[in-house]
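Q: A reviewer asked whether we had any structural model of the full assembly, not just the individual parts. We don't, so I'm hoping you can provide one. Inputs are below.
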Amino acid sequence: MQEAQSTQGHEHEHRSDTVILPAPTPWPMVLALGVALMITGMVTHWVISLLGLILTLRAIVGWFFDIFPHELHVAVPVQTGVMKISSTRTTREQLPVSASHRQMLPVETFSVVSGIKGGIVGGLAMIVPAALFGLLKYHSIWYAVNLLAAGGFVSWASETTAFLCQFHLEGLLAATGIHAFTSVLIGLLYGAMLPMFPRKPILTAGFVAPLLWTGILYSALGIISPVLNERINWLWFVISQIAFGLVCGFIVNLQVKVRTPQFRALPFAVRAGIHSDQPLTKDDEL
Amino acid sequence: MTTTPVLEAVDETLETQGKPPLNVIYEWLTTVDHKKIGLMYICYALLFLVIGGFEAVLMRIQLAIPNNHFVSPQVFNQLFTMHGTTMVFFMGMPILFGMGNYLVPLMIGARDMAFPRLNAFSFWVSAFAGFLLYFSYIGGSGLYAAGSAPDVGWFAYAPLTSKVFSPGHSTDYWTLAVFLSGIGSIGTALNIVTTILCMRCKGMKMSRMPLLPWLYLVMSGLVFVAVSPLTAAQIMLTFDRYLGAHFFDTQAGGSAILWMHFFWIFGHPEVYVLVLPAFAFANEIIPVFSRKAMFGYPAMVAASVAIGFISLSVWAHHMFTAGLGPAGNTFFVFATMVISVPTGIKIFNWLATIWGGKIIFAVPMMFMVGFLFQFLIAGLTGIMLAAAPFNWQLSASYFVVAHFHYVLVGAIVFSLFGAFYYWYPKVTGKMMDETLGKWHFWLFLIGFHLTFDFMHIPGILGMPRRIYTYEDGRGWNTLNFIVGIGAIFQAVGTLILVYNMIRSYYKGKEAGHDPWDAWTLEWSVPSPPPSYNFAIEPTVNSRRPLWDLKHPEDPDTDYE
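A: Here is a predicted structure for the entire assembly that you could use as a starting point for your response.
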């Protein structure tokens, strides 16, 4: 394709070989200097402010006559010539699954809704072991709820165990909010992550991810919140995480279609999206 | 027929060879061309980048070893105040406004900004604000007995700024300079919004507009909302200091918390004012160097707008330790965490754009990969700090300093450097040297991680921010020394960039008009572009008009 830098076609142009643009003017700069000097006088000397005021007034008058009764313009000559718009590279070659250059990869992925569904159901499943732990150890299902809520209420972190075993409406609301929000986010993460591990999704979702997540939290919670760190029973925490992962992973996987054979056969770097399987051609080198 | 007076024709391209120096200077002083104003913004910001970076290096030298007396406590206070103020108000915002000034009209097919003269005024008032701030260095013990450099932090918390604790004019310099720069920022934001809404070329519906102007639109909206409260607060502080008002004077019934609210209502959206253009650069560079269309354009637009709105409801997470109460803390914990959702959408969309692409690891793309990785880490530490109990323990520690430098340097500066390498050929007509660019990238990357990765640890170990020096034996020595070394790496990397820009201008390869085989309108005009941008106002039919020109057999129009 070619696009000529033509000299025609602008309805306001004065001559066919020029373009009309606003004229250069010193007054914006002088006005800015005037305003700056007026202010500078506050920290130096009133004479500076006076000078600034004079410059400001002069600039306002100058600017006014730049615009009224007619805005001042310049005519800039148009550079004529022919410019070639073309690509030095070929259209990107596609994976065998599609011939369209707009094909989005990965070839198949989970919808956003599947991640949300997985997160919601996984979050509900996680409540069971968490409540069971509270019931067995503290004879209260509210312990885990209030401990989670302490993430939002700073003062609760130092409350007694008895306090945490009682029902608190604000604790229930805060914990519900935190748990729901986190569960949905983690569900979305599962939805995005699981297509990269098509062969062992349940292993990934049910065990690998929860154990990794728990390991990170285990090493960090002592710094983030030493009080919470002391109160958490890590065995039950891991069990709860695995419950979430298994259920969430299962639900997410219910939504998905099986990977295509071509996609499974691709190297991990391609499946993980690091690089195309198509080698660069000479034309692509910069 | 025209109804306006027309002066003699002049050539306003970047070509200045053969012209008398005074004519060249006058041409630049009086220009209303958006490209020249953009370049002046960028040059002025680079000057302040060097100054602010030099201040940072001085601070790191002071903290590299315990019990150091390289600078005095007073000078150290001035250094961190001036460094912060410079980098936010006189480097970050101007350089991003400069990039926007240069690129937005070109990308939307316009001949100039909507208000060219206001554009010039906005630049000059911002520039004079920077000079006013640094003029303070020759106050006090310098030429004027009027005060000295500000030393109250870039946040200027009350009551530090009251006359009792800050006599003389040092705080006034800060207040007035930032106030002045605010005028310029609001003027430029107004110009960008109007330009984008009113001056798009034919066929460029909002749904076809490149993502860069979209993000500049959101960013400019944020500037209106965020800078105005700061300006109001500065007027109130000036009343306190000059007229004896008591807005922030706690001894006379005023409120220090009121200042914090005003400041952070500006301060946190300001992070997004700075980071949204960085996102904008990523949105343009990543698809071109992955050779794929941007994944999820509508989601990216929606996420950007959502970030703009949500960022207005997160300011008080800077004040968890001020005693807002459980309800306030809880609201702002959640509001802060919610912003991770649209931000996450953006990260996934960038990854999806790279996914399966034919990636070309030229220097701009290398900086974008660094940006993605570091922005992710910055986001994670941001979520940690959004948790009130964590924040309580590490507020005002070096962990916080490391976190926000991860955002400001790891994300924004990396993206900006990538943008420099990407658009430099368009601005100058010359390619930047790739080898020097890679040296710059690796030195800066290593320096960045030496500095800011290690800075988290002394913060966790209890090192407070803003301290002048520290005692031996606290476990901070080695870490601070490594941080200092990293700062020097970064400084060397930045100097290589400056050298590369200057060298390439004179000795660089000719770029041609479209060296990256890109898709947006700025690559359809000569490099550097003529003062009128487009001889004929373009018409577009899709989000990638140059793709359509290059591939008429397979235009984007068929897919949108």
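A: Points you may want to mention in the reply: Confidence is low (pLDDT under 50) at residues 1-14, 90-104, 279-286 of chain A. Strands of chain A lie at 2-5, 18-22, 73-77, 81-84.
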